[in-house]
Specification:
Oligomer: homodimer
Low-confidence stretches of chain A: none
Mean pLDDT of chain A: 95
Radius of gyration of chain A: 22 Å
CATH architecture of the largest domain in chain A: 2-Layer Sandwich
CATH class of the largest domain in chain A: Alpha Beta
Structural class of chain A: alpha+beta
Shape of chain A: globular
Strand content of chain A: 15-25%
Distance between the termini of chain A: 22 Å
Largest interface: A-B, 79 and 79 residues
């Protein structure tokens, strides 16, 4: 181990290598709820792709498991290290290298946070549109989990907004994939294979992301519904209307009450309507002119009324922003309420009513509860699971995931499998696919050093 | 061979298996220009995924190279069979299985043509937006090549519009990937790995495609420019304007003259302007209301004027449609003019002026010519190469591709490598990536039976 420490320190410099008790607690966990923290053996903070490559060569040589870390805001435990492992922390590789207005892309290092990227692109009236709740998350983390978020209904997920990578293979080879180009049909798409691979195939050391024009005018419409099924039935019709919302969320009444209470939201909804409401739709619209936005908001209001909304509230700038921020913080609210686990399952949007009704039934039968909100336009359901008994909870989670898959969905829409959801996936997925993925993993990582507990069993 | 014939006939039925001289010439080629046709040993026409699986098992058992065939409209030779090979033709698997309006997807068999899919979705006011020039192409072919086309600037390429697959592995195992869902983060994305793999990894037997609302109002604006560089400089500014064109093409003056001549186009452009024009921009806009469309067309006209257009023509319904159709048929026009090869290179859109100027210089130096048109919004350049001498042409093509890669682009934007462009790719690509792709190929196809001449050398 002394030898390994010396080798690693040689690469990044002694002050950028932490070992043993000198490693702060933060490096031992991400925001996943069910696993205890685990202090790694080493934390290295490289400054260049070449340093990352040298670290991976040493790790391969000594069979050291490697976990990449961005901001540590993941929700599935993909950044949870092994006790004998090396954390490669990208905190020093946090530069926006270029904002290219002609090609409408930014070239960034993986440690850049979404807040910093937004600040760098704002002066150019451009924006990276992937918008997971946590804006301190890093672009590298977005790549690893294939992050989604509220704006995905219009702008797509990380997969649609990451155009190219520089990445280091576990062998220490450095490759470039994609580029400042929106299309390519030249061999297999390595960019898209690495996006969403949760640090199990290669480590991204540079990311080319797509930027979109910032539209000047936006508004948020909030519509309470008496009936959950009405909310879900409304979603496809809003999508088909051509209004093109950039946010289309549902929030159930329990979650909304918690958000209002913990974050002092003032939405101007009378008690009587609030009490008879089972769920809310949040519809955010944007346009390049104020007049068009006003027309679209009016049309959205009419449409929501026709679809059975109890009322329609057009939120002003400040309260609209606070509602969206509260929605971003829903995870923290539910964590503070002592949720035992979380689910970010995706199902075909038309299957949401059936899925949510069945999940409520399953949770009740398990002696627990399931409440939440989600990206209704994408069929991506975020649930906090309350079920204290571990055995009952494991069965409940398995039943929920099995149901989602039976309805044509998948276990995770945007958080990834990490360590937390991978065992469910291995139990429920077609074994032919599990084995195929394992062979793909081996084609990148023959020594099996990259995040060996994530996706696959070690 | 008699034994193999009997085994294959057992699977698909004798009348759905062709051998020897009974095989029509069409099965021996696609629309690639440089390879002679090659009659395969067998053509099988399966009706189900199970039949495809059984065919691949026999092929694996006897080491028979397998080439999948949709409509045979590919431009890179990915559907060009081996003489000792089996063509799996999807012509009988041509059903639209479902148009799901709630989830806005269609589920189709791979042999469905774009014309038939468009007819099936039109009554629902929905549309599959991938629009390669040739509308007799099949959805399965779109999956194989990761097809793009004119609408990609707004709606993305096949990769963005294929949400899920049923696919048969060379081992005969049948898997399902993705689903009626726009996002998923549950293991590696097999859908996106198979899209664009040109029949070298697995054969798609069912495809779930995304549908978009058909907007009721559209218009086409044609703008001649005196100077090539002005055209290219205009493109990023049109994108940044927020007008959101669904087509943004350039056509050089030689190609436009050929289109006008061969297809009797009447565009109403005075001789004087036509003679002083080096290239044209075609900008198509759409909206859900006529009034907004009119406003957008006016704004586009102003903008094009500010950007240096010699004039701006708003084309009426009929002539707009004929211009777009002529552009779709550009390949046939250039083929009829005896083009020696074609290029569909992609570069960052900002690099197009430099790339096109350098290509013209290279072509002239080689004693040939390079003319064309392209998806300007995507940096995807379509060139017809005129250079009769094979050695000079090979060097010219190599120089063009090397330049594109040096500028941060790639050899093919939407046609694929096929047999025709794969040798250039192997010569120019980072060998680390070629070897990585080869290992990925082996993880799907250990016997190496699927299109062994495509992407890799056999």
């Amino acid at each position: 181990m002394g030898d390994i420490t010396a080798q690693l320190a040689d690469i990044v410099g002694g002050h950028n290598l932490l070992t043993g008790d000198a490693i702060p607690d933060d490096y031992g966990h991400d925001e996943e709820l069910t696993h205890p923290p685990q202090r790694p053996a080493y934390v290295a903070k490289p400054a260049t792709a070449e340093e990352v490559a040298a670290l991976l060569k040493v790790a391969t040589q000594h069979q050291i498991p490697v976990t990449a870390r961005g901001s540590g805001t993941g929700l599935s435990g993909a950044a949870l290290p092994r006790g004998d492992g090396l954390v490669v922390s990208f905190e020093r590789m946090n530069a926006v290298l270029e904002v290219d207005t002609t090609n409408q892309v930014a070239v960034v290092q993986p440690g850049v946070t979404l807040v910093d990227l937004d600040a760098a692109t704002a002066p150019h009236q451009l924006r990276y549109m992937v918008h997971p709740g946590e804006l301190s998350s890093s672009v590298g983390g977005n790549v690893g989990t294939n992050a989604g978020g509220m704006r995905a209904v219009k702008y797509g997920i990380a997969r649609h907004n990451v155009l190219g990578l520089q990445a280091v293979l576990p062998t220490g080879e450095i490759i470039r994939t994609g580029g400042k180009i929106a299309k390519v049909s030249t061999g297999y798409d390595l960019t898209q294979l690495i996006v969403g691979s949760e640090g199990t195939l290669a480590l991204a050391t540079e990311v080319i992301v797509k930027l979109h024009p910032r539209l000047d005018h936006s508004a948020t419409v909030l519509a309470p519904f008496a009936d959950f099924d009405q909310v879900m039935a409304a979603v496809p019709l809003i999508i088909a209307s051509g209004l093109g919302p950039y946010i289309l969320e549902y929030i159930d009444n329990v979650t909304m009450a918690a958000l209002v209470h913990t974050q002092n939201l003032e939405l101007g909804i009378p008690d009587q309507i609030r009490d008879s409401c089972q769920a809310y739709l949040v519809v955010a619209l944007e346009n390049r002119t104020a007049q068009r936005l006003d027309e679209d908001v009016e049309r959205a209001g009419e449409l929501l009324g026709e679809l059975g909304a109890l009322d329609v509230y057009v939120l002003e700038g400040g309260s609209a922003r606070r509602l969206i921020e509260a929605r971003e913080n829903a995870f923290w609210t539910l964590k503070a309420a002592h949720a035992d686990d979380i689910v970010d399952t995706v199902v075909p949007r038309g299957a949401m009513p059936k899925f949510l009704a069945a999940v409520r039934g399953l949770a009740t039968a398990a002696g627990g509860g399931a409440v939440g909100c989600g990206h209704a336009g994408d069929g991506n359901v975020h649930l906090a699971i309350f079920c204290a008994d571990p055995m009952a909870r494991k069965k409940l989670m398995t039943d929920i995931f099995a149901l989602a898959m039976e309805l044509g969905g998948a276990i995770s829409g945007e958080h990834g499998l990490g360590r937390a959801k991978a065992p469910y996936w291995r139990a429920l997925e077609d074994p032919v696919k599990v084995e195929l993925l394992r062979r793909i993993k081996q084609s990148f990582d023959p020594a099996g050093i990259l995040n060996p507990d994530v996706v696959f069993a070690p």
